[in-house]
UniProtKB/TrEMBL annotation:
Record-annotated Aminopeptidase P N-terminal domain positions: 6-154
Pfam families in alphabetical order: AMP_N, Peptidase_M24
GO BP: any one term: proteolysis
Protein family membership: Belongs to the peptidase M24B family.
Gene Ontology terms for molecular function: manganese ion binding; metalloaminopeptidase activity
Name of the molecule in the record: Creatinase/aminopeptidase
Organism name: Suillus subaureus
Length: 528
């Protein structure tokens, strides 16, 4: 549970090389040191009850170690011509305590850890203070790099470790360069990382399909006077769909979800990060806008109850060894597992936005271009449906399509689901070109604003939403057919999301669960 065949030393090497690119000249010739603390087991409020532990991403990237309470000390000597002596990586892990053996899983022994982790040396954490003091003596001008200190976002380094370094007259301690260098390094994935992202995608893809097939089976539990077995489970609530998704991932060995699953039925699908997942599906004669369903029981026999035709949006993905999947599927519920006419119109338009985006992906293409493309396709589609009226160019310049597609078309994906934000959307960004076709609102919520490069992994997740708050911005728009729009308002929203690896000449889709209309309807209706 603590490690894998993870290429940690290669990541440390790449990070130091990135550091050397950004260091001021007066620091470049000096020995460089990275000192990091791993995460500690969290506890619930003021109790001794453990919460799930997940290692801090940057620490795992440089160590491959998920042991709580560990530390990393890496030394890079740029003046060494021998590659074998230029880099050393020391991992410090906690010693086994007697209480560990009784209450929880103990950390590995030193000998076990040597078989688990790709580092130069391993010792107990109690020896780290002495190791730091020896390093200070042997490398009198070393530059120590840490993640931002006194930040709640990262594990805290104990004061005794930093005190000796900070008070030294010949050594430098800085938190100005490491995080940005780590983010730039993590932006490009190596073969080992892609394999883990693929594993997370495979498990999550099967989980999405499992939910669809349980919907299609429509197993009825009426009259069974005992707890339902998994094969008898119904999905009549958002929470039930979430439970089956998470269970499917967990039974394949995925310990963590990459983020809180979003399971939103009916109009709730218009809320982008709806994580409540606590409502029933919409039942007749109750209308789609009634979120409470007047207390109707999910499993109670009631012949007069009939599912209203609606959409169910599930945005969920698991982690595999700290690497994330991020997949969204929108599926028909009710109506015999088939889309309504208007539901199919909007779903097909979102699918077109995604498929044309993916055909455009290759190194050198700026992500802003993909965002603009999606808005162009949306405007053309709404004109064809009669939802928009007027000139395509004028509508694009007006920005009203942002009321229906308010978010970015995707983001960098890796160890974190919204990965390496300082690298994917840098503050000082010289790559952005002026858009003379669209509107500034198209780019407000983009989390990636760079030209694509080989080895990047990105999500492609266009969507169309009918959200009451957002639609207020177009209430007076001359470009909107307001009468026709009323017929779509109760739909909620549609999003389709796949995880994409940028290759040397294009891209590769890591997500395996299908999204075409014919297959979706066949599965959700129980036909296949």
């Amino acid at each position: 549970m603590f490690g894998s065949s993870y290429c940690a030393r290669a990541h440390v090497q790449r990070t130091f090389e990135q550091l050397m690119n950004v260091l001021p000249s007066q620091l470049k010739d000096k020995p460089q040191v990275i000192l990091l603390a791993g995460g500690r087991t969290p506890f619930r409020n003021d109790t001794d009850r453990e919460l799930p532990f997940r290692q801090e991403s940057n620490f795992y990237y440089l160590s491959g170690c998920s042991v709580p309470g560990s530390f990393l000390l890496a030394l890079y000597q740029p003046e060494h011509t021998n590659a074998s002596t230029r880099l050393s990586v020391k991992l410090s892990i906690p010693e086994i305590q007697a209480a560990d053996l009784m209450w929880s899983v103990p950390p590995p022994t030193i000998e076990e850890a040597k078989q688990l982790f790709d580092v130069t040396d391993i010792a107990y954490s109690s020896e780290l203070q002495g190791t730091i003091e020896l390093l200070l003596q042997s490398h009198s001008e070393a530059v120590f790099h840490t993640l931002p200190r006194n930040s709640p976002l990262f594990p805290t380094l104990p004061e005794e470790y930093m005190a000796t370094i900070v008070t030294s007259e010949t050594h430098t301690a800085t938190d100005a360069y490491l995080l940005s260098s780590l983010h730039k390094t993590r932006l490009i994935k190596d073969e080992n990382e892609v394999a883990m992202l693929q594993r997370a995608n495979d498990i999550s893809s099967r989980a999405h399909e499992t939910v669809m097939r349980v919907l299609g089976n429509a197993v009825q539990g009426a009259g069974i006077d005992r707890p339902l077995l998994p094969g008898e489970w119904l999905i009549e609530k958002e929470a039930e769909a979430e439970a089956i998704f998470v269970a499917s991932c967990r039974r394949e060995g995925a310990v963590h979800q990459a983020y809180l699953p979003i399971v939103a039925a009916s109009r709730r699908a218009a809320t982008l990060h709806y994580c409540c997942n606590d409502r029933e599906f919409t039942w007749g004669p109750i209308k789609p806008h009634d979120h409470l369903n007047h207390g109707a029981l999910a499993h109670g026999p009631a012949p007069e109850r009939q599912l209203e035709p609606q959409l169910l949006l599930i945005d969920a993905g698991c982690e595999w060894d700290c690497y994330s999947a991020d997949i969204t599927r929108t599926m028909p519920v009710g109506n015999g597992g088939k889309f309504t006419e208007k539901g199919k119109q909007i779903y097909s338009l979102v699918l077109e936005m995604q498929q044309k985006s993916m055909k455009t992906l290759r190194p050198g293409v700026h992500w802003d271009t993909i965002q603009l493309l999606c808005h162009q396709i949306l405007v053309e589609g709404f004109l064809d449906l009669g939802l928009f009226k007027g000139s395509k160019d004028e509508i694009l310049r007006s920005g009203i399509s942002s009321a229906f597609f308010p978010h970015g078309v995707g983001h960098s994906l890796g160890m974190d689901v919204h990965d390496v934000p300082s690298a994917s959307k840098p503050i000082n960004n010289m790559t952005i070109l002026q858009d003379k076709v669209g509107h500034p609102s198209f780019y407000t919520y983009l989390r990636l604003r760079l030209p694509l490069a080989e080895g990047m992994v990105v999500t492609v997740e266009p969507g169309i939403y009918f959200h009451e708050h957002l639609l207020k911005a177009v209430d007076e728009s001359e470009y909107v057919n307001h009468n026709l729009l009323e017929e779509y308002r109760e739909m909620g929203g549609v999003r389709i999301e796949d995880d994409i690896l940028i290759t040397s000449d294009g891209c590769e889709n890591l997500t395996k669960v299908r999204s075409d209309v014919e297959w979706l309807e066949s599965v959700c209706s129980g036909e296949i």
